[in-house]
C-alpha cells in the first residue's frame, strides 16, 4: 500500500491489526516482515529558504530532488548521505525520510556531524495513529523528549516520518584530496589521526588497504585549499609515503565511491560496518580476517566483506564499539542486524516503544534481523 497523504497514513495505522513494514525508497534494508506500507507517495519540498539555510520536505521526497534544488542555489546536504543501492542490490529511490530514519551519514561526518545534527524538526505518526510534531526551522533548546534526535536513527520503530525540516550548508568553491601511497593499516590510521589533529581542516579521511592508498580531503576557497594541501604535505612528509594530489573533479568521484562503498559492489559475501575508536581499528580489522575491508572516518568506521554467515561479533569479542550487519547474502540466517543492546539501553528502548508504539505495529524485532 502506498500512502499519498498524512491522513491516509493515520487511517492505515489506526486500522492495522498486525505489524506494518514501513518503506520509503526501500534502499536501506530497513523494511521487515509485515504488510508493506510505502511512504514514497509523501513527496515534495514544502519550503526552501536559501538565505536561512533551511529546507522542509515531505518524507518520501527523493534525495536526488533535494540535492538538485540545493545545487541550483549553490548549497548542499552537509552530511553527505550515501547511496547504497548497488551495495544492497536494490533499485529503489533513496528518500529524505529514509536518510534520517537510518541517520545515514557519509565521509564528512567526522568534520561536520551526522545527519541528525542537521535535522531541525520532524512530523510523524506514532503507533496509535497520533500526529506528532517536534522542533521547527531553527535550532533551540527543548524540554522533555528531544523527538528530533530520537527519531533520527530510530529506523522506523517509533513512528512513521511524514515531514522533516533540515539545515543545509553552502557548497564550497572547490575541493582537493591529498593521497598518501603505500602505507599499511596502522601507519595509515596514524597519518589520518595526525591530519585530523592539524589546523588544516580536513573534511574526510579514509584508507583503502587493497590499494594501500590513504585519502585526505580539503574543501573551501581555492587559495585556501591550495595552501592547506601544501602545508599538509609538509606535515605528513615524515610518514615516508609518496604524496599525490587530486583536483576537484577526480576528488569528487573518489569520495562518492568511498561513500557508497563501491569497492564491494557486485562482490559476494556479507557486508558489515564496525564503529570503533580509530586507535583499535587496525587490530580489529586484523582480528576479523575479512575478505576485504575499508576504513572511513579516519578509522572510526570499518567496512568489512566477510564470508557468508560469519558471526563477526563473536569473532571480534568485546571492544568499545558495535558491529552492524548491512548486507547478508544468506537470507535465511538469523544473525541480528543490529548489535544487541546493553541491558540498561534495552530497558530505555522498551520504555520508548511502550510510549510511542504500544501495540507493536512497527515491529522492531523484525527490523533487527538481517535482510
UniProtKB/TrEMBL annotation:
<dbReference type="InterPro" id="IPR036318">
    <property type="entry name" value="FAD-bd_PCMH-like_sf"/>
</dbReference>
<keyword id="KW-0274">FAD</keyword>
<dbReference type="InterPro" id="IPR016169">
    <property type="entry name" value="FAD-bd_PCMH_sub2"/>
</dbReference>
<dbReference type="InterPro" id="IPR016164">
    <property type="entry name" value="FAD-linked_Oxase-like_C"/>
</dbReference>
<feature type="domain" description="FAD-binding PCMH-type">
    <location>
        <begin position="1"/>
        <end position="171"/>
    </location>
</feature>
<protein>
    <submittedName>
        <fullName>FAD-linked oxidoreductase</fullName>
        <ecNumber>1.-.-.-</ecNumber>
    </submittedName>
</protein>
<keyword id="KW-0560">Oxidoreductase</keyword>
<dbReference type="InterPro" id="IPR016166">
    <property type="entry name" value="FAD-bd_PCMH"/>
</dbReference>
<dbReference type="InterPro" id="IPR006094">
    <property type="entry name" value="Oxid_FAD_bind_N"/>
</dbReference>
<dbReference type="Pfam" id="PF01565">
    <property type="entry name" value="FAD_binding_4"/>
</dbReference>
<dbReference type="GO" id="GO:0016491">
    <property type="term" value="F:oxidoreductase activity"/>
</dbReference>
<keyword id="KW-0285">Flavoprotein</keyword>
